[in-house]
Specification:
Order of helices and strands: HHHHHEEHHEEHEEEE
Mean pLDDT: 90
Number of domains: 1
Number of helices: 8
Low-confidence stretches: none
Distance between the termini: 32 Å
Radius of gyration: 20 Å
Number of strands: 8
Shape: globular
Largest sheet: 4 strands, mixed
Strand order of the largest sheet: 1-2-4-3
Length: 287
Amino acid sequence: GPSHEMGHNHQACLNIVGATEVSNNLFSNVNVYLLGISTTRGTAVHDTFNSFARGAGWFDMSIWEQTRMYYQLYLYYHAQGHNPNFYPTLFKLLRQDPIRKRSGDYDASLVDGDGNTVGGYKSYGKQDYLHMAMKMCDAAQQDLSEFFEVNGMFVPVDNRYVGDYGNYWVTTTQKDIDEVKAYMHRYPKGPNICFIDDRVKQSPVLKDSPLEGRSSSEYRVDYENTEDRRIGYADVGQYSDFVDGYTTNGYYYTTTYSQGVTTYAISGKGAVGFKVYDSEGNLVFLS
């Protein structure tokens, strides 16, 4: 609607390759949140977790998976008040040192995955989406590397075609990724923002909403009334639980073994989410 279109007027500094119809939805979701009547729009958090588990990169994720990444940062830093200056600081940093969505290198002979000759500009992730990710860490003063890992930004790409109101060929090397991670590690490890959502539990309407249309109800209604997006679709991760002093009740897991594969089933209450690491400390799954 109108908030989506107005978002196009404000997205320039964080409009990375492929995100013209994504980054503007930060503003539409924020407006829906501030309207105070309903939950917000986007895929379930577990969709992103499943994409991560199968090794999908940022460009393999859907528009609404990508949209939630931007909005999760708003929920944690702004809605929960952990850093209300996060996005204003980020915009300032990116105006001072902007992303480079494309280089000056144009190649008319490049061929896409369908065999079509599609000329376009070369784009380098370290100057585009990885640059934005580093600035997000600067704005937060926290190491958000695991958050970006879950969102597929640390998957190398080699001359990948991305159509986004223009033709781009994106390259991000493992060396680029390692350098960005090293930069982020200068900060203390950030919180588990990858789990945060506003659709796990009922949440109150905003009685003091700065926008018109205040609700007379006590709780927000579903923005999208589908099984995997309505209120209560998950057990943990509600944004109101991301507060100091929130304690967990522990968790339980069971294992089954069949045909050489061990399956772990985890359950628990009082957490914001569950993470599984391998023996070398690498994140392999979330729930």
